[in-house]
């Protein structure tokens, strides 16, 4: 079986990236750029998958890269827009948050959004690690490229890249002064304005700078009848700023990047899609008590009621807010041509204040236990689950030193790395426990009280108990690493063969505290260390055809679970991946085909067992899994004739659980339920097909592009045992069609104007995008994708 999958080869980034004739800085998904669109071949694609600039086709790593021009034309505004162009990648924005994402590559990732939870896929901005998925969604402005590295990247990128890495690379300041401005308007009153100023060299030929700013607004795409459209679910007001400075001081080059993203809005509508008969009967009586009707429906709704919440400051509101900012400083020193010493310093911080609109209904009312009432029961506002998670905050500092050099036929990279962060959050929750009156003893009510409620309220069989649990926690994380990698290309073989080996030692130290309703405060500390390694061999069998084999390992740090009421520690996850691939170009680089096949043995799987109850949304994390993931990615780009490009990709992931331990709450026995476990956040198949035609008309260029993407179903919980509504929350197979027609390089005075019309989700798929099973609270809910949208944009450059 292993030999079958290893027959595959490495991910081709050729899809949408590079444009045509000259070397492009990233594989520009079939993006072809203005005069280059009429070039005779696909051109080269330069990536930094091994922490230095290399041509994509020469890198023995499965990579997909999207170039800046393609990102601009496709209006890719966040990492959540990338998966339709990259196989075996899942990025889903999480409910109730404006900035949290769940990211998976080849079946490995993490869905926990807390401020102290480690990712399974590393996200990097200009070489600086973004530690928390809670702040991973922000507006991407002026990117040079996006790189998706699949498979463990434990040697060069370190811990928490066990599934792969997502690299975001900013566009550097230009040598010449220039101004670019862009604006767009679309459905749901969505509009934005963006501008970038390049100063050119401002201190002789030494220093140059750029500054970009963007404002983006949209009304919601689900009508909440309780609010104006500007506060409907899906509404957003966002401001972003990016600053770049570059100084060239002879042997020393300095690059500084600053990014800031502030957003306010109402997250996507979280709709209840299933409920127990007990919960549905209880909440459905709300109108008879003067409350709103109860909505539970598996089909996406257009007009709803969504109640607000009084936050920690006493303000009644519906929306959330978040701020992300970061600083990155890269200094490169080249004392001799064969050696470069590089320093990468990063500082980032994140803040979020979220209204947890996870009830999917208006103001519900029902009978609840009330010891101030004569009958011990009164009619009050009830809610399946809501709250205010604020403040949720994190800051981090990182320092990396690298030495990149070459000695004869040997190229090497040596480095040391240090990382420190501090994070915390305070989650004030509100929920209603619905139960038969006779069951109140199960949550601590004396039998005499239960008898009194029954006697004073004849005919009352079901009652609610309002609870306001507080979940507060925080912690620190410190990581240190030493790493190195060396590649040998014997000149006697005309550089056709390359042997690469590498290793990394990482030491992690974590502390955590649990507060809120936990008394006394619980404190814990845990340390881990790991050695990850890599070995790869590549060979150019003929010109422009390279085959390679690669074995790599990675690990995701262990830690202390913030969602429990006791100190619940868990160990690191580890992965060993076997990969083989081919990267090829034919017909004078008019056809590019890359293929990668892999098998990943994934051990010590950290399994989250959700346990919502009177304490709110809690869970335990245990190392209960062992799984083998296997599959492939194939990517192709073709230029049949000048101006016409076709690109496509297909990805496949097979998940085979070897061990999956589950503690049966009824018997307290530990069972192996590997045959019942489902793959998480990972479709078995992901497919993309794009076509683009460009044709000069006078001095301008007309471009038409269409994209079709498809992925099979996604599960959000591994076991039905712990998620009673698991099968109600399946995100079904879905297809997306998007198109764009543009006229570019229209001469306008001393500048050039581009105008485009676009449409997205043209099939108007009503896809369940993200689901949460609240189990013991008696319901499950989900967010759905955005309806069909369309718009116009214009960009002018001077």
Based on the model shown, name its key terms:
22-stranded antiparallel β-barrel, 56% strand, 4% helix, disordered N terminus, 798 residues, 5 helices, Maltoporin, Chain A, 5-stranded mixed beta sheet, mainly beta
Describe the structure.
The structure is a single chain. With 798 residues, this protein is mainly beta. It has a domain at 222-242 and 265-326 and 355-690 and 708-745 and 758-791: Beta Barrel (Maltoporin, Chain A). The chain has 5 helices and 45 strands. It has a 22-stranded antiparallel β-barrel. A 5-stranded mixed beta sheet has the order 3-9-10-7-8. Strands 4-5-6 form a 3-stranded antiparallel beta sheet, with no helix packed on it. A hairpin with a 4-residue loop joins strand 34 and strand 35 (591-610). The longest helix has 10 residues, at 447-456.
Q: What is the number of helical segments per DSSP (H or I, 4+ residues)?
A: 5
| Count of beta strands | 45
Class by helix and strand content?
A: mainly beta
Structural Rg? 27 Å
Low-confidence stretches: 1-36
Helix proportion range: under 10%
CATH architecture of the domain at 222-242 and 265-326 and 355-690 and 708-745 and 758-791: Beta Barrel
Average pLDDT over all residues: 90
CATH level-1 class of the domain at 222-242 and 265-326 and 355-690 and 708-745 and 758-791: Mainly Beta
Strand % is over 45%
Major sheet attributes: 22 strands, antiparallel, barrel
Report the end-to-end length measured between terminal Cα atoms. Answer: 57 Å
Q: What is the CATH topology of the domain at 222-242 and 265-326 and 355-690 and 708-745 and 758-791?
A: Maltoporin, Chain A
